[in-house]
Design a protein that fits this description.
By secondary structure, the protein is of the alpha+beta class. It has one domain (45-208): Peptide methionine sulphoxide reductase MsrA (Peptide Methionine Sulfoxide Reductase, Chain A). The chain contains 6 helices and 8 strands; from the N terminus they run αβαβαβαβββαββα. The strands form 2 sheets. Strands 7-6-1-3-2-8 form a 6-stranded mixed β-sheet, with helices on one face. Helix 4 runs parallel beside helix 5.
Length: 216
Amino acid sequence: MFSRTKTELPTPERALPGREDYPFAVPDTHYVNGHPIRPPFPENLQVAVFGLGCFWGAEEIFWQTEGVWTTAVGYAGGSTAHPTYEEVCSGLTGHTEAVLVAFDPAVVSYAELVARFFEVHDPTQGMRQGNDIGTQYRSAIYYTDESQRAVAERATAAFGAHLQQLGFGTVTTEVAPLGPFFYAEGYHQQYLAKNPNGYRCHATTGVQFPREALAG
């Protein structure tokens, strides 16, 4: 059995205190393509941040997507500053395991990335993905501006309605403004490129996103 600490978000008052800076070294470059994983990024790029379960497999999906310039994994949506992986896994920071995606909107739209996000995990599982249980595995879209917010909210409603028509449960995806994004430890960055036989959690519904819902 798992404790309630793992499945209930802590209040800011109960969250771990954190620290002023990283307690570990953050790599500068992407292991796969050599691009920087931290800003500043080229001016033509935009940034998206998603939480969709274990960030190892999630990041791999996005760095393999055409139009994505760089990716990184980290912690978003929580209260603890510069957390460690162990702290996030304790359930006492409030963070998701998140993927930062810097992409070229001339090649791939934000809407397409959101559609892909919904297709590669199960957004109806609440504080889990598959056998991974905890608040850090919840489904989340963190938007950077009102344009992204509109797309994220529209997509969440559209996919939720589509899934319910097919007999699935309610979509629990968190749509929230992007606060601080704290990079994860170096060994987590592009983990599956370094460990090709490593763990991948893709607890998908198997349902294709109805892209016509985002047209126009």
